[in-house]
Each structure stands twice: as C-alpha cells, then as structure tokens.
Amino acid sequence: MNRLFLLLFLLSCFGWAQEKIYIDNSGNPVSQDKASLYRTISEKQGIYHIKDFYLNGKLQMDAFSKNKDFRGIEELVGKFTFYLENGKIEIQGEEKKGELKYKMFDEKGRITTLYSKDAKDNEISQSYYYPEEKDNFNIVYFQENGEIKKIVLFDKDLSKIRIERFTQDNGNILSHYYDERGKLIGSRLTKDDDSPAEGTEVEYYFNPAQVRMITQWDNKGNITTKKEFYRSAKVFSERTVRQKDTIITFLNPKKKKMGELLIKEGHPYQGVAYNLDESGVLQGKEDYKLGILSESTFFYKNGNVKQKVDNDIHGSISKITYFNKNKSQKGIVSFRNETPYEGYLYDNLEKNESYVFYKEGEINEIKQLDDTNHLRFYKKVQENGEEIGDIYNKKGEKEFHYIIKKEKDKDSYDIKTTISFKQFKNGKEIHSGVIKDGILSQGSIRLNNRYYENADYIYKIVDNKIVKDHFYKDKIFKTEILYLDYKKEEDSVFHPYLDGFEISEEDFQPYMNNPTFYHPIMESSNRY
Fold first, then answer.
1. H-assigned helices in 350-444
2. Where does the signal peptide begin and end (predicted)?
3. Residue 389 near residue 402, CB atoms below 8 Å
4. CA atoms of 211 and 180, how far apart (whole Å)
5. Half-sphere exposure for 245 (CA within 13 Å, toward CB)
6. What is the model's pLDDT at position 9?
C-alpha cells in the first residue's frame, strides 16, 4: 500500500500519464483509419509536453505548450522542433519570456524562413526562395512587421555576389550590385515615375554567379559606358561614344580585336557584332552593311561554324547553310518570302538532328528528337500524297502509327480528310480505327487531356453512336454520346453538338518542337 502511494506521488511530481490521440494534419482528433499522425501528451505543473508522430512511428514534433489543444507555434513555450518524414528538421525554435524565434527548412535542408518576435509583438523575418531554374538568383525578402524593407538576390552566400534592393518611402527603388568577392561595384536608382537616373547596373552569369556586364548611365538616361566580360573576367566587348555615334569593340580571350560595330541612332549600322551565350561561350556574330543585317553566323561550343544565315539586300532571309561539327557542310535550305522553300531546316545541331524538310514551299518530312535524343515524332508525305506518321513516347516506344489521306470534294471543293490509325502500348496494339473529317467513324482511340494531368478520354463506336468516356486516374466519371446520323438532323456547317467529339492529328499529341530559322543576336535595343 505504501509502495502504491509512493508510486502515485512520484507520478504526480515527475512522471506523467500519457494520452495517445490520432489526429489529421491540422491537429484535429480523428479515427485511426483517417489519421495522418498520432499524438502523445503528458502534463507537469500546467505545461503539456506534446509529441506528434508519423504513422510509421517517426517523430514529427517535439514541443511544450500551456494549451493542450494548441493550434500554432505562437502557443508553444520553450524549445520546439518539427521534423519532416525523412528525419530532417523542418522547424526549430524557442519561446522565452514572451519572445519567439524560429527557423524553417526545406527538404534539402536549406533555410526558408528566419522569424523573430519580441515581447511587444514587433516582428522581423527573412523569407528565402530558391528557383528551380539554374539561370537565376536565389531571393530573400527582409520584412519588419509585415512590410518588405529589403530584397536580396544572391547565389550561395549573402555576403558575396548579390543584388540588394531597397524600396524608399517615395516609391523609388535603390539597387546595389556586388561582385564575386562581395565588393560593391555599382548602384542605381529606379524612379517611381520612370524618369532617367544616373548610376551603374550589373548583369550576371549564373551557375556559378559571376559578373557579366557593367553599364553606366548618365542623368539623361543615356548609356555612357558598357563592358561585357568572358567567364575569365577578360573584356569581351566595350562601348564608347564618339559624338553622336556609338562604337562597340569586340575582343577575343587573348585581348585581340575581333571586330567593331557602328551604332547610329540606337541601331546597328556597319560592322560586325559578336554574342556570348548564357555560359559565356561565343555563340555567334552578325554582319551589318548600311543598317541592313547581311549575314548571321552561329557556332558550336567547340568554336566551329554551325550555320550561316544569308539575307538579301532588304534584310530578308534567303538561305541557311548548315555545317557538321567537323566543319563539313551538312545542307542548305532556301527561302522565298521569308519562309522555307527547299531543303532541310534543322533545329539545334548542338543537341540533335531534328529537322523539317521542305519541298517547293510545303512540308514534306518531319523528324523530331527530344533533349535525350530519343525519336519522338516522324512524318513523311508519300508520292501519292498520303502522309504517314509515327509518334513515340519518352522511352522511345511507338504510341501511334497513322495514315492521312486528303481528297477534294467534287461538289464543294472542300478538303476531305481521313486518318487511319493504330494505337500501341508496351509494344502491343490497344486501339485502331478511322477518323473522317475530324469525327471517329470506326474503332476506338484513347487520348490524353492536354490541360489536366491524369485525365484522358476513350472514344469508341458502339451501335451507330460514338461513346466518349471521361477518365481521371483511370476511373470513369462522365460519359457522352453522339449518334453517327447527326448530319441528317442538321445540314449547316456548324454543329454545336460536335463540340468535344472532334479529333485532329494534333490530339494525338505528337512531340513538336519545330526548328526556328531566325536567331536575332544583337537585335535587342537593350544592347545599345
């Protein structure tokens, strides 16, 4: 009896009876089958020790609160820690004498928030954002009581290369630019009324970040000097003003002059302009004669010529000559009225050999490869006028084989189009049929929804009608029906009840990234 009394006394002082509660992600009590977490609570002297666990038993939160049913960090006391399911810390902080401080982290362990609030409810925070694209800075917002005081764009270290932006009370924005060592190299004010302001702006390379271009402006909004740099930090181009004209001089990595461009009234006039790509490698050049772009040349990363674009005396493109990486000529495509007329139009020969072949101004053949060099789409016009196409998925497996026949209607002169197709999955035929003038007339087909992931449709012919089943995550949620004798009911061209039943070649979703034939290098007025 005395031992039992002693045990109860010790539990009241040191040990605590624990509750186990199943909860959802918002902390609401739920049944076990609907739970996302479970919680244990123990109490000592009015303070609750609360632990939340993932259903696999891993700790999700370890915290203390005066409120058993707390709903936010503001109700916690002392030290607290939240964990991701992978075991990494998500939130860690402490409440002490009315002051609250905590840090938040993402799944990669990067800090996303720094927060502090004093006993008088004054808040200071830093919010971090990490873009997925490698060609951009990370961003951190500095706030006081909910108002943004400063924005910093940075690479990896807030004390090194970065841009700091301050919003002033009058709406103007002051930007400070820093180099790789963290040295201030330029500042410029952007006025709220867009009026000119003198100062210095800096542009950067990324991954890793490095100074790319420094531009100085006068108080009239004119560029006084501009320098662009290689990755080696050597000068690539330098701008100088001579009376009313501007000269841009281009240098190679050995500091020798490659060429010079004369700018008149803000536009290229005479000479040659070179261009670096986003990684600082020579990408191309443009030749100007009396204000007309006469020739553009593009280079492989190894420095050899990739393609030359010739223009006529009016500046309109006349032909493109392509070259292999070993300098041998690959092909020529001619142009008429600024559109391809005869030959192979390639995409980016640095990556793959995707092309569109033109014959007398018409597309005769298309071959498209993706960034992993897998064939995704091939189509060719046959001698009899039929178009035969094949579509492949990311794995290189064939998904569609189809034949397009086009005939002129003798009475109306309209073009009648028939698509015969076969659809495949894992090497096996799963659907086949015929589409006439955009409407399925035989067989069945499954098509993806272009706008919603995991949504698709199956069209099939059943007893003289088209049945269209709508799927989401492979479950039918809607069915529509169109009777094949709809034309007997209405002879007008527009049939409102056809909406959602029309199918075109584009609905097969061929991988299309058609080559472009015009690559302006120096056209942007920002460069002058």
1. none
2. 1-17
3. yes
4. 7
5. 11
6. 37
